[in-house]
Design brief:
With 173 residues, this protein is an alpha+beta fold. 36% of the residues lie in helices and 17% in strands. Helix 1 crosses helix 5 (149-157) and helix 1 runs antiparallel to helix 6. The structure holds copper (II) ion (CU). Copper (II) ion (CU) binds next to loops.
């Protein structure tokens, strides 16, 4: 009879990291520019985007001062020309200052700041080759590495064997 609470607490211990893995194994969030208010003038977004392999389900977080910048999702042509006259090539507009953009499709995404001169000054980011499936070794953004979320990432590697152990224990009980 004394075995039951022991099993229960052991189960809880085993289930906890499994749950964490489920939460973190999927989509990742990327703070554009990697720092607070990282959507700004004077940042090399080509270098930023090269650091990551984006996948469907990932979320880009644009944080910025919304009286000074905005986020327009545009066509590749408008991205290159920075010309959005009369709404040309504009797919979506975000202006809150904290915009979360879901990468819902496996395609290329093009973003610019539409404030006068900002796009031409380099305030634009291309998120290309968004892959259809989440990769097993999907690189997490730095804020996940340094925070408690890193444990979740590490846990995902042994989530499956852990699940088997938990299932076995349930059968034994
Ligand atoms: Cu701007």
């Amino acid at each position: 009879m004394q075995q039951l609470p022991c099993f229960a607490s052991l189960l809880l211990l085993l289930l906890w990291p499994t749950t964490a893995a489920v939460q973190h194994a999927g989509a990742a969030e990327y703070l554009v520019g990697d720092v607070g208010y990282g959507w700004d003038s004077g940042i090399n977004y080509a270098a930023w985007a090269r650091e990551y392999a984006f996948a469907v389900g990932d979320v880009l977080v644009f944080e910025y001062v919304n009286t000074q910048h905005n986020v327009y999702e545009v066509t590749e042509e408008a991205y290159r020309s920075c010309d959005t006259t009369a709404g040309n090539g504009v797919r979506a507009k975000d202006t809150t200052g904290y915009d979360r953009v879901l990468l819902a499709e496996a395609r290329d995404y093009w973003f610019i700041c539409d404030f006068p001169g900002h796009c031409l000054g380099g305030m634009k980011v291309a998120v290309v080759n968004v892959s259809a499936a989440q990769q097993l070794q999907h690189p997490p953004p730095p804020d996940y590495v340094s925070s408690a979320g890193g444990g979740g990432r590490a846990a995902s590697a042994w989530a499956l064997p852990l699940g088997v152990v938990v299932a076995l224990m349930i059968i034994i009980m």
